[in-house]
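Record 1 of the preview.
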Amino acid sequence: MIDTSTENLIPISKARDEFPQRPSLPTIWRWTLKGVRGSVLESVRVGGRRFTSREACRRFVEETSSDRPCRPKHPKRRKQQSIAHAQAILDQFGV
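->
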């Protein structure tokens, strides 16, 4: 989590300068909103604008570069199975 009192906030539009090979702005937004391999680029909203920090960018690079396990490859399948299970329970109770 970003500590706004100690970290250097930067607008999302400037965050691309903190990464090697300057990823596109849509990529930065995707990292902020959806993440990659289970890691999300931390951000905060200040006055209707979204900011991240240089420190959050460094943490994101470290997390996505590590050898830790990735997220499951089929989250939609798991969600569909959960919905089917819930529906079966509701059917048992006649709902």
